[in-house]
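just leaving the lab so this will be short. what follows is a protein written twice so to speak, once as letters and once as structure tokens for the fold. can you read through it and tell me how you think this chain folds. anything you notice is useful, everything is just below:
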Amino acid sequence: MLPAEIQRIVLLIGLAATGYLLILAWNEDAQEARTTDYYSAEPEIAGIESARNAIPTERSQPTDAVNDDIPAMPLPSNDLQPQSTTTEPYSADRLITVTTPSIKMWIDLEGGDVVRVLLPKFPVQIDDPDIPFVLLDQGQQRIYVAQSGLIGADGTDSNGERPLFSSERTSYVLDQDELEVVLRADVAGNPVEKIFRFRADDYLVDVEYRVVNNKTSPFEAGMFAQIKRDRLPPTLQESFFLAPQPFYGGATTTLENRYEKLEFDDIDEQSVGFTQQGGWIAFLQHYFLSAWVPPVNEQNRFEASRSRDGNYLYRTIGQAKQIAPGDQGVWQAGFYAGPKDQIRLEQIAPYLNMTVDYGFLWWIAEPLFKFLNYFHTVTGNWGMAIILLTLLVKGALYWVSAKGYRSMANMRRVAPAMKRIQERYANDREKLSREMMALYKKEGANPLGSCLPMLLPMPIFLALYWVLLESVELRQAPFLFWINDLSAMDPYFILPLLMGASTYLMQALNPQVGDPMQVKIMKMMPIMFTVLFLFFPAGLVLYWLVNNLLSIAQQTFVYRQVEKERATSK
């Protein structure tokens, strides 16, 4: 019969193996369930509810009859009135599709609203590239659409009415550098054109209104553009256990704040409204966003509110323009629906790139990303870029870390003497403290110095977490072997286990000082870190693993150097 100690070890190994297999099975089943839920059937456009009633109306006086989907020309007030909606079923004949290398878009001919956007370059799962990511959509259980129109005294979308456009074709395909999709309507005898301008390999769509004033009096209208969204999170919104989550909600820029979040709970309490030149308003989710960008040289009204049907409206309203009889008026805005590409977003509008939210450590995260991006251009592999970035960070902190490791070496050297002092003065805390301080002073040891190597990497670690979490460039980025997505968990949890082993080895090199309970708690830390890192992005675990290995190498080198110096001095 096996000894009891060996039996316990065998039992622990068996339990660990069983737990590991159960976690693998859970991870696989959860991933399949999310994908099945999101794509249980082909998208159905016909028969879903129309978003025609999200257009703002006149708000000069509070009224329950206000239609909140269609805005009115804004009054000089920050107060938004309660609003109501109605619904109307789609007709399949009212939808046209536009396909470019970057996006596939469905446009409703009633109002010219964007009711669905697919992103072919961003598949839902890396193993199935034929299933594109769905950004905008409208169905029985989800609403996320982009609307625009003309409002005011002569607006085509005033008083709750939406123009019914016609189109030459039901589908368009961009086969050159640029594509114009022209929708036409006749409103009160005035020819109206709504033009969508697409460019190859770009997610920014120019939306333009052209109206010929055939009246004998001036034509007056302003353009509104808005995003209508429910509160339900995306089905495939990535999350990590016990870790900060990416922001989900609206955002804008103001004169006071370059980047301001418009959270659901805040909008529930009070609607938002302000006026400024230029600006933008957006809706954010993990890796992707949609945004309306009005002309930078015009005064624009920005609003965020909740409608009576529970949906949220993020809108911008431009100034009214007067068009003389016989003249043509033009209104413009840009609509972006795509990834959080920092470089492209910065080109579109000031501070729009800040929607890539790195948190309060952005001042560390931004240069980290620039270095990471540079290393990727050199290696062509984001995993190798992370390793090179780790080497860079470790090199930058080398001399500070070396000083801390020297302190650790001294603490290891005095550990036996310290243990004797603790045993001798176990019942006299005051005497124990004096004798320990005297020992530290005599031997040149500093117990706080050993904390420095552990604390220094933490801000960089947190900043890199946000870089890996927020940078769409790393979404589904492969590394080597089984790691095919550095932004997701390790599918076999090998990297976290290696990281845990390296943490244990590092701890074995550290001096074991303090009371027995503290020592036991410290010995549990590698296990706790391993469990936590099981659910972290593989890229982040890779960074921490490489950092640990470099720390072990540096620590061993410094220890030997200190021992050599001490032997020489004797």
Confidence is low (pLDDT under 50) at residues 24-53, 57-67, 75-90. DSSP finds twelve helices and 19 strands in the chain.
